[in-house]
Amino acid sequence: MAFVANSLRTLSKLGTLAVHQRTFPVGGVRVLDCVHRGMASFKKVDLSGVFPPLPTPFDQDEKVNHEHLRNNVTKWNEIDFRGYVVQGSNGEYTYLSDEERVELVRTVKQAAAPGKLIIAGSGCESTQATIAMTQKMAEAGADVAMVITPFYFKGRMTSQAFKNHYEKVASASPIPVILYSVPANTGVDLPADVVAALSQHPNIIGIKDSAGDVSSWNTLTVVKASVFCPVVEIELYLNTHTVVLVAGAVGCVAALANTLGNEVCQLHKLCKEGKMDDAMKLQHRLIAPNSAVTRKFGVPGLKVAMEWFGYYGGPTRSPLLPLTPEEEESMRADFQKNGFL
C-alpha cells in the first residue's frame, strides 16, 4: 500500500537544497511561499487522509464494467476516505486504453460522494502524451493528477530528464500535480535533488513515493510537497514512534483500504491523535493482510480479498493471472489469523 513520499535517498543532499525554502501550512498541506517571487497562484488542495487506489473491475471477458465500479464506490462512500486514487498501479492502468482510463475517472467522479477528492493517474511515457492525458483527466473530473516517472528508456532517465518532464507537465496542467515514484514497477527512482528542485514549482503539491525508504520522510517535510505514506505497510513506523504522520506526512494511499477501509482510517486517526499504543496494536493486525494484497499477491490478490468483503473484485486483465488455489488459501490465512475473516 502506499501513497507516499519518501523517495529521498540522500538526506543531506535534500537538506542542503531545501531547508531554506519558506513554507506555510494550508489545510494540512505544506506549500512554498511563491507569491513573493512573483509566481502565479495555484489551487490549494487538502490531501490529508486515506485514499484507496481503486482496482479496475473487469468482466470475465476482460471488458471494463462501469456498473460494478459505481457499486463499489457507493459502498466506499460510507467510509471516511478523503477521496479516491483512480488509475494508479492497482488500477492496472498500463493495460488500459487512453479512452478507458479517462472514462474510469469520469465514472468515479460521478459516483463519488460530495467532497471526495479524485486523484487521477495521468502518467504516460512521453511528456507530450502525459500533458494530453492530464488535461483529459481534468476534464473528466479529476481534482489532482498523479504522474508516474517515465521509465522505458531508463538508462536515459537522468535527473535533468525527470526535471524537464515534470516541469513541462506541471506548467501545462490545469490541476495540481503529485509526483509518483514506484521503483518496484518502473526500475527508476526520483533522486533527492530532483524532488527538491521540483518542490519549487507552484503546481507540484505532493509526492507519492512507494520506494519504502523510511529514513527520508522526516527530511521531506522541509519541502513544499505534501508527504503521503504507507502507514500500515512497515512495522518500523510505530515501533520507533516515527510514524510518517508525526514526521509531517498528511495521508496515505493504501491498497488494503479497498477491503479494510474502516480499519485503515482508524489507524490513520489514531496516529493523528498521537494514540501510539492503540495504533501499534491495530497496525500489528494489519501488517500481514496488507503485505498479502501488495507485495505477496498484488492486484490479483487484492481483487480476491475484495470479494470476501462484499465488493466486486473480478478478474485481472491479461497477462496478469489469477491466484492459484494454494495462493488464495495462503492469503485467506493472513486475514483469518488477524481476526478479519
Automatic annotation (TrEMBL):
Alphabetized SUPFAM superfamilies for the sequence: Aldolase
Any one GO CC term of the record: mitochondrion
Enzyme category, top tier: lyase
Pfam families with a match to the protein in the record: DHDPS
Annotated residues for binding of pyruvate: 253
Any coiled-coil regions, as ranges: none
CDD domains the UniProt entry points to: DHDPS-like
Molecular-function annotations in GO: (R,S)-4-hydroxy-2-oxoglutarate aldolase activity
Record InterPro entries: Aldolase_TIM, DapA-like, Schiff_base-form_aldolases_AS
Catalytic activity, EC: 4.1.3.16
GO biological process: glyoxylate catabolic process
PANTHER family recorded: 4-HYDROXY-2-OXOGLUTARATE ALDOLASE, MITOCHONDRIAL, DIHYDRODIPICOLINATE SYNTHASE
Subunit structure: Homotetramer.
Record-given protein name: 4-hydroxy-2-oxoglutarate aldolase, mitochondrial
Gene name, Swiss-Prot/TrEMBL: LOC118413704
